[in-house]
Give the backbone structure.
Amino acid sequence: MSKKRNDFFDRLVYFTLRLVAGVLHCFPVNVDLRTARFLGDCLYTCDRKHRMRAMANLARCFPHMTEPELKIMTRRSVQHLVMLGCEVLFTTRLIRIDTFSRYFELTQFQPALRLMLQRNQGLIMLTGHYGNWEVLGYLLAALGFETTSVARPLDNAYVNKWLLGVRQKQGQRIIDKKGASSEVTDILANGGVVAFIADQNAGTKGIFVDFFGRMASTYKSIGLLAMEYRVPVVIGFASRINNNFHFQVGVQDIIWPEQWDQEEDSLRYITQRYTKAIEDIIRADPGQYLWVHRRWKTRPRGEVAQQYD
C-alpha cells in the first residue's frame, strides 16, 4: 500500500517550488545553473546516504578510479541532478522551433529523424538517466514530432500536475507507466513513437543482463514490444556541454528487427544491446549519470546484495 501523503506538506512544497521558479526566471539560465551547481555541492556534503550509494556504484563500475576521482564524479553527478531540475523550468521559455539550434548540437541524429518521418511503422526510443533526459522529448515535440513518453508520476500530486504541464507544453504526451500497456500497443500498431527511460531496476520479474560488469534486472516489456510490432529501437542521449544550457543530442545505437531475427534469444539480445548502448553513453562522461538511483537493487537468485545496492 502506498504511504498516505500529507496534503499540507505537499501544498507547501508546491508553492515553494513555484516561488523558487519565479525567482530563477529573473536571471539568465546559465547564471541559475551556477547556483544549481552550488546547491548540488551542498546536497553532496549534507546527504551522506546518497553520497555513499553513488560512490559505491561508481567504484564497482570503475574499479580503476581513485578515491579522489570517485568523489569528484559523485559531486558532479549530484550537481547535474540539481541542474536538470533547474533546466526543466526554463525549457518552455527557451526551446522553440526558431531557437532550438542555439541550444542543441545534433550528432548523428539524422537516422532517428528519418525513422520518425516514416509513418508506415512504429518506433521505440530509449535513453537513460544521463545528462538531461527530460529535454529529449521536449525537443522532438518542438520540432513537430509526436511522441508519447512512459513515466512514473511524482508522488506529490500538485508538483506532478504542474511539471506535467511544463513537459507537455510543446505537444509531447506523457502517460503513467501503470496501466500504459494498452495505450502503448495502440500507438505502436498505428505507427507512433513511444519513449522510455530504460535503465531502471525491474525487480524480480525483470530479465538480468550485464550493466557495467554486474547483472542488472531490466524490464522485459521494451524488448517484447519491439518483437511483437517489429519496430526499430533507437537509443539516444542529451549530454550537457560545459555546464551550460547547451546540449549534444545524438544516437548511440539503433537495433533493427532483422538483427534480432538472427539471434536464438531475441529478447535477451535486444535488452542486452540497448543496455550496453546506455553504458557506452555513460562511459563518455560518468559525471553526468544519476549514480544515486538503485539500478542494481534486485540481485539474481542466490546472490547476496552488497552494501548500498
